[in-house]
Amino acid sequence: MTEREKTAEEMNREFRSLETKYQALKESNEKEVAAAHERELELEQCESNYRSLVDSSSALIWTSGVDKLCDSFNEKWLEFTGRSLEQELGNGWAEGVHPDDFGRCLEIYTDAFDRREPFQMEYRLKHNNGSYHWIVDFGMPRYDRDGCFLGYMGHCYDVDARKQTEEALRESEAMLSRSEQIAHLGSWIFTESGNRLEWSDEVFRILGCRPKEFEPTYDGFLGFIHPDDRVAVDQAFIRSVQEGCNIHEIEHRIVRNGTGEVRYVHERCIHERDASGAILRSVGIIQDITAKKEADEEIRWRNEDLQLMIAVTNAVNSNLDFDSIVNIIASLLQQSYDTHLISIFLPDKKTGELVMFGNDLDRDMVRDVEKTIRRPFPRIRFRPNQMHPFSEIDRTGTGILSVGKEETVKRLEGYLKGTPWPATIQKFIEKMLPFLADMLEYRSSVAVAMKGSGETAGYLELGSRRTMTPRDVKRLQSIADQLASVIARFDAEKKRQESEEMITNAFNYASIGMAFVSPGGRWLKVNHAVPAMLGYTEQELMEKTFQEVTHPDDLAADLDYVRQMLAGTISTYHMEKRYIHKSGRAVWALLSVSLVHDDSGNPLHFISQIQDITDRKTA
Asked: Helices marked H in 122-258 — which ranges?
């Protein structure tokens, strides 16, 4: 083979190689074109399917690019807003956000966008009917296959109906809470299986706590109940559970948290049971009824106080001595205050001492005390200017409320200083006072001044087996002030009786004639000297007028004086006149007359003093 042939053969081989490569490249390219076309068709189908999915979704869907501007919205969004896609693109969608929500929404969106974090927010979006609907918007960052950030996609749902339901529920709960506050009525649920107790906010408030301040428990609630009521309340609830009762109801006292204020509450609950009778849960209410209890108590107190004042007034009018009146007072107060001893201290008008008047309602108690102290129970007296248990009242102007054994002992120590016992005996008794306090069983006492017309007439002290409160101090102060007026009337009546007795004695036992004569001249009352002077019996004289026993020659002058007195031109007159004795003889007399008027100024009667001067006139 020649060199030319060799060269030609090599060129042919090279050509066939190139042709083979070309055919391979051509086939490969045709395959790639076909695959690309197929991928393009597949992508178009995916995009079509995605768009169909997005547009058929019940959610309002949007997307944004890396510039934070929205670049697509689905048909549901456009249908909801009633706007075109062109109007919504970019920041156009923000025109439909409620002005009050826009700033918050923008802040949440941009903050999450910058951090590439999902977000959730609720805002109001303008509906195609012009109203705003609440929607919830869930935003998620988007990435391509290589992890490059593409922007955000959001899915929004119309939650306006839920929002309205929630708002209605909130309003209902708020109204219930306000109603509970107004009525001072709280509600609770106790689930037996989980031993779980739930309280409404008002239960916390009734107990003096902040709502949800702590997790409520049954034992915790018992801790708020007044110590004197706690066992009874607990046992009553347990009995209602064990005895198959479906309804449990009780009234009791609570002690409020922090202040220690005692309040009255009414509780009522329904036990819900299964078919076997086992309790599933208890649903109940607790209501603060303090105002009602106090109003009822106030009415009861006023009725009792009225009966007390009527009884005391009747006793005064019946001329009972003061110790008897004190016993009547104590007897009536005993029922209200569960007391067996009440003391009233009054100043002795003669000595100026402050003297105790006490009752002996419980003679067994008095005997026990006397047996303990080994001497009779004394009447306590405090000397003028001596410190006494009521000195603090004089200083502060307010009553004294003493609660507890320690305070009771202090009160007894004050009384001890007013006993007549020597200092050594007082010291001995002082050591026994705690024991005496236990015997008296007093939980509290109240001491108040008895004031009438602004002046202190005395003091009243009452001890009780129950715990008294400032309301009791107020009530006893009112009673004490009324008693002060009763004492004033008692003293005034006593003085009036003494005065009348003095006048009656002066009238009846005067050595000269004394007479009360009516404005018409009839004898109303005469002392023994007048009938003796004129020779008549008292009865005979009372049936006559002074004109009938006056000498005719003196009658005109006497009647002229009478007319002047009745007219008010003179207030008294004196004259010598003659009376006609029953025997017919003349009796000379010196007559002095004055006129008594009633409160309205009308004449009541004359007072006549008649002195027999016959011997002087005939000498």
From this structure: 160-183, 201-206, 218-222, 227-242
Q: Are 367 and 438 in contact (CB under 8 A)?
A: no
- Among 201, 208, 299, 319, CA closest to 258: 208
The kind and range of the H/E element at 444 are strand 444-452
Using alpha carbons, select from 321, 307, 260 the residue that is nearest to residue 493. 321
pLDDT at site 7: 53
- Res 88: pLDDT: 93
Which of the four pLDDT bands, split at 50, 70 and 90, describes residue 242? confident
What are the distances in angstroms from CA 410 to CA 196, 384, 405, 439?
47, 21, 9, 15
Three-state secondary structure call for residue 99: helix
Predicted confidence at residue 36, as pLDDT, reads 55
Query: Burial letters for 364-401: b for 16+ Cβ neighbours within 10 Å, e otherwise?
Result: ebbeebeeebeeeeeebbbeeeeebbbeebeeeeebbb
| CA distance linking residue 422 with residue 494, whole number of Å | 36
Angle separating helix axes 322-337 and 290-317, nearest 10 degrees: 160
DSSP letters of 562-612? HHHHHHTS-SEEEEEEEEE-TTS-EEEEEEEEEEEE-TTS-EEEEEEEEEE
Rounded Cα gap, residues 177 and 534, in angstroms: 95
- Three-state secondary structure call for residue 260: coil
Mean pLDDT, residues 337-344 taken together = 76
User: For 26-62, what is each residue's pLDDT tens digit?
Assistant: 667 667 666 655 655 554 544 444 454 455 567 899 9
The CA distance from 394 to 451, in Å, is 11
Residue 297 has pLDDT above 90, yes or no: no
Quick one: average pLDDT of 167-173? 74
Bridge partners of 263, per DSSP, are: 254
Across 127-144, average pLDDT: 92
H or E segment and range at residue 397:
none
* More confident of the two residues 85 and 29: 85
Backbone angles phi, psi at 410, to 5 degrees: -60, -40
pTM: 0.49
One-character DSSP codes across 284-346: EEEEE-HHHHHHHHHHHHHHHHHHHHHHHHHHHHTT--HHHHHHHHHHHHHHHHT-S-EEEEE
Which tokens is 312 given? 């005391």
* Confidence band for 511, pLDDT divided at 50, 70 and 90: confident
The number of C-alpha atoms within 13 Å of 373 and in the hemisphere containing its C-beta is: 26
Q: Give the integer Cα–Cα distance in Å for 12 and 570.
A: 182
Task: Return the closest-CA partner of residue 347 out of 384, 310, 320, 372.
Answer: 384
- Contacts of 300 by beta carbon, 8 Å cutoff, 6+ apart: none
The sign of the torsion formed by the CA atoms of 375, 379, 382, 384 equals: negative
* Token pair belonging to 521: 């001249």
Query: What is the reported pLDDT for 14?
Result: 62
List pLDDT tens digits, range 104-117: 999 999 999 999 99
